[in-house]
Amino acid sequence: MKLELRDITKRFGSLVANDHISITVEPGEIHCLLGENGAGKSTLMNVLYGLYTADEGEVLLDDVVQHFRGPGDAMAAGIGMVHQHFMLIPVFTVAENVMLGNEQTRSGGRLDLEAARAKVNDIASRFGFHVDPDAVVEDLPVGVQQRIEIIKALSRDAKVLIFDEPTAVLTPQETDELMGIMRQLKESGAAIVFITHKLREVREVADRITVIRRGAVVGEASPTSTDAELAAMMVGRAVELTVQKGEPTYAPSSLEVTGLEVTDARGAVLVDDVSFTVRGGEVLVVAGVQGNGQTELTEALVGLAAGTVAGSIRLDGTELVGRSVRGILDEGVGFIPEDRSTDGLVGAFSVAENLILDRTNAPPFVRRGVLQLGLRDEFATRSVEEFDIRTQGIDEPVGQLSGGNQQKVVVARELSRDLRLLVAAQPTRGVDVGSIEFIHKRIIATRDAGVPVVVVSTELDEAVALGDRILVMYRGRVVGIVPADTPRDVLGLMMAGIPAHGTEAA
Fold first, then answer.
1. Topology annotation, domain 248-332+420-506
2. For a tag site, which of 39, 68, 216, 482 has the least CB within 10 Å?
3. Beta strand 308-315 pairing with 318-319
């Protein structure tokens, strides 16, 4: 089935999210949609999938104009979407999830689970998925859960498949398997729209690449284009994609974590006997598939853990376990949280206010209980310039900035203090390649100043680029600690829980 998006325009008030975008995807083609965060990719796909109605333009399937009133109409027309965050019911079986919303019944209104099982087995055998239709979804690895999403779409005879950032929660091996599945689907005649920001994946699997910037198509690129060429098209300028760092020069300071355990209110152990040391002047990257205890580990380091924390966290000999968040920050700990909108910023506050959120209890910004507005504004003005924060002014609400610029506000706030430790959780999540370049440089500069740095990242390329050593977590435990030049396939196996030979003892 041929897909054509013709002059699609979508506005939200004065914001033009999609500006007369035209794209054609032929049957048996993988067409990659590439663009920085906020470029309009997701809005365009929501129009295609019936979640939004375009203000102008048309969606055509096999040259027939479509009028979708919702996702049900899109699915009925042959469009399927594999979402970044799986749309599965964890306690249902594979067959039950596949038939959900498209239930077949027997006499008496009973669900025909046999038909659902047969459909799962048929599709799984065609594509070599090896999925048990009676397995409960929550018991399956994320790579298998993603295959279930694909089976769901194919069970409704989808001829156009949208893959929206599909590798976000996959190990490298699972990502390679997904690329193979996409090629199989292409050979079967499906038209595939592949949305991603990972340049390596684009060049590996795409037949054609359309680049979107600020809501408009800026051109098409070839899969043979270099990463630098693709990045420049996305951002509109040359981008340095390689992290420049020398060998670590160790400083006397250190972070020592010993036997750390985090238990939630139900008694489940989320961080299980984790031990490691980070020396001043080095970056230790905590890697792993999202949901394996990394979030709880970083929360424990800065006193935010919601459950019970046992073990020891010593910064230059000072015990941090049992200290308040304020007490830990006052020890010189900088924290870049993984969710900036929830934990890092107050959207309604101005840029200037957000830049001193954790510094309103002491000089220089507060004296004798009075906020020093002049000093705050001078600091904010310098930070906006130094960290290249694109804003209309320091009084602009931070919630009105782009995702990348919001992240720069968080980074500027945390790196403008005298630090003894930096903890950065997913520091480049949801930001464009230009902002990634800048944030990486600032993290390395902090490391080169002799500060111990802990970075949590699910992006393997980032882990390898930033880290001096890489600690891999799986189900709350340390699988091993390895040098940053460890081969990707070894790191991928470790992310799946398989230890590598020669790793440091946890």
1. Rossmann fold (3.40.50)
2. 216
3. antiparallel
